[in-house]
Amino acid sequence: MLITESSVIELNERLNELKEDKCKVSTRNFRPNISVKGTKPFDEDWWNEVKIGKAIFSCYRPCSRCIFITVDPDTGFLMKNMQPLRLLRTYRIAPKGKLCDFYGESPIFGVYMILKKEGRINVGDKVYVQKKLSPF
């Protein structure tokens, strides 16, 4: 599972604008295997294939989110305000069609990938992306 750090930053900007229920989340709230810097927010929605180091991955579906993203990774306790799940439901629901039918009210944040070519990856490796014509 991959997310971009810019998506987390964008989410935190929206959380900070809330009148009530302000909070801050980190990449850890989303438990990714890989976190990528230097992209536009939600750029991963458009990714078809990703090369990191010698490994090549195929992005096969967006990652839907549930109540686990509301667990504080430092304390293990559920955040009473149900953020960021509540906010994500206002703008990150799958578009109408098969994905929306499949995911329902679960917001999308990140992308699942499968390994196409084995290879070592390291922190700081350049990330090369082949994009799709449309998101998801």
Automatic annotation (TrEMBL):
This is MOSC domain-containing protein. It comes from the Eukaryota. Residues 1-130 form the MOSC domain. GO terms for molecular function: catalytic activity; molybdenum ion binding; pyridoxal phosphate binding. Pfam families: MOSC (PF03473). InterPro entries: MoCF_Sase_C, MOSC_domain, Pyrv_Knase-like_insert_dom_sf.
